[in-house]
Specification:
Strand content: 35-45%
CATH architecture of the largest domain: Sandwich
Largest sheet: 7 strands, mixed
Radius of gyration: 22 Å
Shape: globular
CATH topology of the largest domain: Immunoglobulin-like
Bound molecules: copper (II) ion
CATH class of the largest domain: Mainly Beta
Number of domains: 3
Number of helices: 6
Helix content: under 10%
Length: 463
Amino acid sequence: MLSRRHFLAGTLAVGAASQVRAQTSHTAPTVLRIERRDIEVNGKPASVLGIRHPDGTFGITTDVGKPFRVRVENHIEEPSLIHWHGLTPPWRQDGVPDVSGPAIPPGGNAEYDFPLRVGGTYWMHSHYGFQEQLLLSAPLIIRDGGEKSGEQDIILELADFSFTPPEKIFADLQTRRPPKMDMPGMAMAAMKSKPDLNDVRYDAFLANGRTLADPEVTKVEPGGRVRVRIVNSSSMSAYHIDLGELDGTLVAVDGIPVLPVHGRTFPIAVAQRLDIELQIPKTAAAYPVLAVLEGERRQTGIVLLAGEGHAGRISGMADAVSPPLTLSLERSLRAVEPLADRKADRTLVINLTGAMQGYQWSLNNVAWNKDVPPLSVVEGERVELVLANQTMMPHPMHLHGHSFQIVSIDGVRFACAVRDTVLVPPKTTVIVAFDADNPGWWAFHCHLLYHQHAGMFATLRYD
Ligand SMILES: [Cu+2]
């Protein structure tokens, strides 16, 4: 059971707001409203969800050292709860229904108040039902003063969109039959080494809510420097960021600094973030920043417009089919501040299990339900999670409440990036290490929305 100390440290005031106010009530909280909203995609209207300030703006940009003092109001007809992805709050404020606490009922609200100790590019999204697929998410940026002076900050939030309701998408995935195969086809399938990608056929890919038919155009200074904070809010889709003729420098992954890596293309899995610094040429021109869907030609993106002129038309299709994401960049990443060198006190093997047939997804062959016991660790331990993907699909695995370091890929030890979401490609084993320094009850799951719902979800608990 949880000790009273931990409960008090992590009080989330659903129906007990006065208790929190008594502790910290110097300034009014930032209000965020969960609302239904109408958007237009491919020229057709769609009703989606959103989390916005009362003035209609999205997202939070704040500063390290300030408290995260927020009131979330639920203005939709169903329960909801918002998870602060990548932050390490007291566990009661983590926003996972029935794990951290109850969902917010229609008309209700919840208050959050915890210190922001580190900066970076984070995001917020609903952890309730399929609401994330209905675009109930927004960027959450914590500036840490380390941004270079004069650097322009630009957010690029990626999302996949379907006119089909997510409940129907999920039901269709569960009942989808594998294609009928003759004998040579079956032999081919048995031999194939290509991963299964893109379970869901989306109607559009959005960058800051828009497609390339009418992209967001942001003015930048010719010769200036820009930091693009890329958030992959997609429910199921991974991309290759394509900077075109711009030279980029990757400086952080999942909000956490890495030694700089120069390049023009960078992979981003579901729920990951990339901070990329760009040097804008002195030549006045339109510079697209694109995201190409893995394994396909479909793309989305924004346009950086240096000087006068206009953006011109950008195709929604890349010139060539992009490859599946790999860990080749991941292997080369090095955290600016790695974990202290230390042997693991505890190693937990977590097999990523399941199959497309019947859409069965699980961890260690157990599909999540509320009776599944949590993984158990002890406060103060160095823990290693051995993530062994036994399936033919890539799974972006996310641990709540902690950052972890990638320390091994397919048996080779490294000290790679510190982050909160790691891609585990098919038939690949990745080991991540973290320090058990944030007691509570935490979610750990595949961040592909429909995999998570099928049961690729577990919890981790310690006092
Ligand atoms: Cu998965």
